[in-house]
Amino acid sequence: MRDVIVIGAGGGGAVVAKELAARGLDVLMLDAGPAHAKPDTDWTQLEDDQNNLFKGALRWGPSDRTKTGWLRDTPQPSFINQVAGVGGTTTHYFGNSPRAMPGVFAGYAGADAALYDTAHRFPFRYDELVPYYRWVEAILPVQTAAMGTKEAAFFRGCEGIGLPVQTSKDITRDAFRPQENAILQPEGWAGRTNDPARLQYPQAKGCTFCGHCYQGCAMPRQAPVNLKAKRATNVSYVPMAKTADLWMPGGKAITLRANAFVTRIHTTRRNGELEASRVDWRDVRSGQRHTEEARVIVLAAGVVESPRLWLNSDLPDPNGWVGRGLTEHAFDWLIGVMPYDTESSKGPASAARADFPGSGALENVGLTPGIQALASNFSDSGIRGAYDLGLGETGPWTGKAGRAVGRELKDMMGDVNRLLNVLVITDDDVEAQNRVTLSRIFPRDEHGAIPRVEIAKRQRSARTLRNRRQLAEKAAHILKAAGATKILRVDFPPFLLHLQSSMRMGLSADNSVLDDQGEARWVKRLYVADNAALANGYGGVNPTLTTQALATRTAEKIFQKYFGGEAWVGREGPISSVDDRVTQAVLARGL
Ligand SMILES: Cc1cc2nc3c(=O)[nH]c(=O)nc-3n(C[C@H](O)[C@H](O)[C@H](O)COP(=O)(O)OP(=O)(O)OC[C@H]3O[C@@H](n4cnc5c(N)ncnc54)[C@H](O)[C@@H]3O)c2cc1C
Fold it and tell me: Using an 8 Å Cβ cutoff, are 412 and 344 in contact?
């Protein structure tokens, strides 16, 4: 019997695995997708090769790319951007690592307290999470983003509308700032040349400014895997977990199995309570089925698969909140056509932001051409101005919202480096109708009933819709102040790359699945440690740092409650994933 089984090696799961391995527990981590262990040789920088939904290296599907991806049932126009495999969706992510807004936590008494989703606050205070933020920020590490021309343009726009600059990691007022991100700062030749011969480690270290964050970061070439620029968990937490016996006195290396799809969580009844006891998993390549027992099981399969697995396991759902209350930040996208070069396709994909407590956030995002075209055309309002259906809101942008076609699209896409994009990240409400269930339409696949993901975009709460509209207006004003000659508002349908709160922790047992420790209310020894555990949309910033801070706290709670251990955060100094001891361990183990 294992001490702990972690299901899912993505943003949250890998954190629990590494933390408990460092405490000497016997941890098995199972991930449904590929190992993503050798970005240098396994990945390219070709947009279609990496991202194609049906056969790309980063997709929701099996590691054998000749096989079809795994289906989800989405009744509305929407796009779920999740990745199977070690690292999970952090292989795609941009590394932006802001802290959540303090106003979404219990006990918040600021003047703006009423502006948040007050019915669904976190069940503990913001202050309690801060030491865990610091711990994760040191491990990844999180640094102030390297910046270039597009960020300078975005900041000019922010100053132009009178926003002050924020210098604290704690978000307390409307302000702009460089991102705090989990991408190593450039050193040596990095960021100074496009010459591939010079962009090899150790001549180049950190971010090379290649602009390919979305494609999965393999830069700088030849760097030890734990020194890749973008700190996706396959290059940060996972190598640490696999070598915990070497860099941590008393640590124990985890066992990691990729291509291991968990299909059921079993329970036993002890002292009148239901307890998680073992999991069934299927080897995706051979089709063989296995069972493993553990003292504690941690569910971290992501916001869609965690509730799917719960429901397929016939675990209890007495209040109907398993899968419910999904938040997704009601994204939108504005594009400024600029009269000058923005170098939008270079550098970290997103290195500048503005935050608006109570409403959400805006990010400057630069993309490579294929992804820029995708983002520009993904509209819920159809072709700009072509329909008389009441679609296409007007506002401080050019004409009606919608997607550009024909000459307008050609002119815009003619030079991505003359564009300045702003992503709208709405602080959206936990709303019961937005949810993950099991599909009754599509047949089961080899891993059970498939998930159905429902987002009623046009029936969102008045607060969600108001926040989204206000942020779109602010984005347009920023672009105008930065000199845009044309501003397009695309009006995204649900673009699901920030997904959270489908197995939410909460103050009330009436509308939450987890207690304030991250343990399932109705199944003891079962914890949730991915974005699904988040209590709400945490103010409309990026999720992963908060999930990782919470996962660290959850690991401590598990260690204390079931293994008689003591808390460590705040008592010890963290060892960073780029520390020499970790690099030596990674090299010694041949990772
Ligand atoms: C383009 C893009 C950019 C982003 N940028 C940012 C950013 O800058 N900052 C930020 O904070 N967030 C960002 N995100 C979001 C970020 O990727 C997620 O917040 C994070 O990955 C979520 O972590 P998770 O553990 O919930 O899920 P995931 O990272 O998706 O991990 C879930 C894991 O579980 C595995 N799994 C699923 N089902 C099973 C099963 N049944 N058995 C075994 N394994 C299973 C999957 O293979 C996967 O590895 C971005 C996302 C995208 C798509």
Answer: no
3-state secondary structure of 375: helix
The contacts of residue 100 (CB under 8 Å, 6+ apart) are 126, 129, 538, 539, 541, 546
CB of residue 98 inside a 6 A radius of ligand 1:
no
Query: How many DSSP H helices and E strands does the chain contain?
Result: 13, 21
90, 215, 492: residue to mutate for ligand 1 pocket, most atoms within 8 A of CB: 90
Cα(351)–Cα(76) distance, rounded to whole angstroms? 31
pLDDT, tens digit (0-9, with 9 covering 90-100), for 55-98: 999 999 999 999 999 999 999 999 999 999 999 999 999 999 99
Q: Is the CB of 51 under 6 A from ligand 1?
A: no
Dihedral angle over CA of 9, 232, 497, 301, nearest 10: 0
DSSP 73: B
DSSP 272: T
Cis previous bond, 131, omega within 30 = no
Q: Is 498 in the pocket of ligand 1 (CB under 6 A)?
A: yes
pTM here?
Answer: 0.98
